Amino acid sequence: MSSRTRATAPAAASPDAPPRRFSTVSDMEIAERYDAEDVRGEIGRPGEFPYTRGVYPTMYRGRPWTMRQFAGFGTARDTNARFKFLLGQGQTGLSTAFDMPTLMGYDADHPRALGEVGREGTAVSTLDDMVDLFDGIGLDQVTTSMTVNCSASVVLAMYFVVAERQGVPMSALGGTIQNDMLKEFIAQKEWISPPEPSVRVIVDMIEFCAREAPRFHPVSISGYHIREAGSTAVQEVAFTLADGIGYVEAAVARGLAVDDFAPRLSFFFNLHNDFLEEIAKLRAARRLWARLMRDRFGAQDPRSLRLRTHAQTAGCSLTAQQPLNNVARVTLQALAGVLGGVQSLHTNSMDETLALPSEQAVMVALRTQQIIAEESGVTNTVDPLGGSYAIEALTARIEEEAEDYIRRIDEMGGIVRAIELGFPQKEIAEAAYRFQQQLDRGEKVMVGVNKYQSATEGPMEILRIDPGLEERQAARVRAYKVARDQAAAQARLDAVRAGCRDGTNLMPLLMAAVRDGVTLGEICDVYRDEFGVYRDPAWI
Amino acid sequence: MAERKIRILVAKPGLDGHDRGAKIIARALRDGGFEVIYTGLHQTPEMIAEAAIQEDVDAIGLSILSGAHNTLFPAVMRELRTRGGDDVAIFGGGIIPEEDVAALKAQGVRELFTPGASTDDIVAWVRANVRPR
Lengths: 540, 133
Fold this sequence. Notes:
- The structure holds two protein chains of two kinds.
- Chain A is of the alpha/beta class.
- Chain A has a single domain, classed as Methylmalonyl-CoA mutase (TIM Barrel), CATH 3.20.20.
- Chain A has 21 helices and ten strands.
- In chain A, the strands form two sheets. A five-stranded parallel sheet of chain A has the order 1-10-9-8-7. A five-stranded parallel sheet of chain A has the order 2-3-4-5-6, with helices on one face.
- By secondary structure, chain B is α/β, with parallel strands linked by helices.
- Chain B has a single domain (7-128), classed as Cobalamin-binding domain (Rossmann fold), CATH 3.40.50.280.
- Chain B is 42% helix and 18% strand.
- A five-stranded parallel sheet of chain B has the order 2-1-3-4-5, sandwiched between helices.
- In chain B, strand 4, helix 4 and strand 5 (111-113) form a beta-alpha-beta unit.
- Chain B is globular, with a radius of gyration of 13 Å.
- At the A-B interface, helix 3 and helix 17 of A face helix 1 and helix 3 of B.
């Protein structure tokens, strides 16, 4: 055993006590010290293959990351007001949260929407809602991120039609739609149809955007939810990149050339508590993706090799107990993201374990980013931690272990098959349960929860959603459906149904449908009819 | 004759798919010696009440993180009553503000666990409070 790997027992421990174990929040064992010989893998220079040190040569000196706070609640008008507030506070991009009915493809007047309208995001059933959402915001002036998956095709069609009404050509639109169904089956679990038709619709969107909206990111390949579901950092990298491989393979199978769409694939990672592990994770993901794209898919365009990513601090790390402490957690997590080289960042608000964030809490979260960007000095030099023995050793280790997972998934027949087998789902559930046990035993610490509890805690002002909103929104949707040209709407809906059957790219059909008043729920009902409804393999 | 094991239905009502908590609780209850049935995701109140009656459970644990708790807890209890399951103990967990916790308990929810609750506490509560029907 080398001195490096020998764990050191604390001085006070009895001679019989097992040596104290040092591990990351993901339970990856950490050595007492890392040295030059632990550094493996190609480090390179920032902006050069394999992009370990960052995707651009000048990083934040050239351009700061986009400060993009995820926002959405109540009606589209409520959220529009929050957007304008955030832009007024110096935020540089928009990020839209939709409510559960919108995310699951139900209109606000559907019985399954009961109790959920406008609760954890904004309610969008119709084109009118989408028009309200971006009222007074020039879509050529901001980039917009939209967090929506199984109903994403409809939401994107609505967004393009809103731009059309503003006189903004699709080619001028910048932004991102999450549209990552594979991670839904793995982790977040909002779905309509099974994996295969879901991926088909995603490839329709990749193809359409490559042709018509080349600045738009049609998929944001997301590890965030995988991590929130309880995965380790290695699993987050592995399953996210495996999902990315799945989309690239499907698009190539459609006949697209890899360099025609791969530059517009973007990523979304979590920023959890373990500072060094998170920095290493982002670097490992970049290096592994660059190698996969070059060696496995033969991508030539350097833009196809660059893993550009949004990141968000970890909601699951925040505590309802002593919620002000969350400001400190978010600061460390955001700093890890910046030292890890992200392109865009959301910092969570301190009150998010209690409710949707209040305006004041959101402002502190945004200010946290501004303090890192403009006060801390960490942006003055590119990749300041590059070459650190510990960071480079951890980067190599995460990359190697993630690559092992990807190899196992390949052996199963790819990510869709692995999902059908429940492989990533079970690995994550296992890791989540292990972590909970470690917390319950006090082996992992959550300050204020299983250590340093305090009896007196002041109440916190939280955002309340108006209970009358749901009925008003449902009434608005019913009135919208009554007022439209029914024959035109039905014809457009029939065309979407035909497209589902014959494989025509759905995007133009969806845009035509929403222009003529077809609602999000009606289109998703066609998906349910034509593609079937996915059922959760409900194991424990 | 040994007393039969307490049977618990762990359920995810509504549209929210975040099942990390539900699965951890289901597993902790099973490891704690209870018989656990997990419904899977996206269940309506009718489906949950129906499953509870068919599986003859003693308690239902509902996990809700979507903010729809004020609608979904009462709806599940209503559906249970119409099926003669008034005596099934209802408990739950999720992101539930304090004043809503009080209101839901007044309506008959037996216990609510909010973020930070340990699985040991939840298992202990079930052991102390749920009896075979």
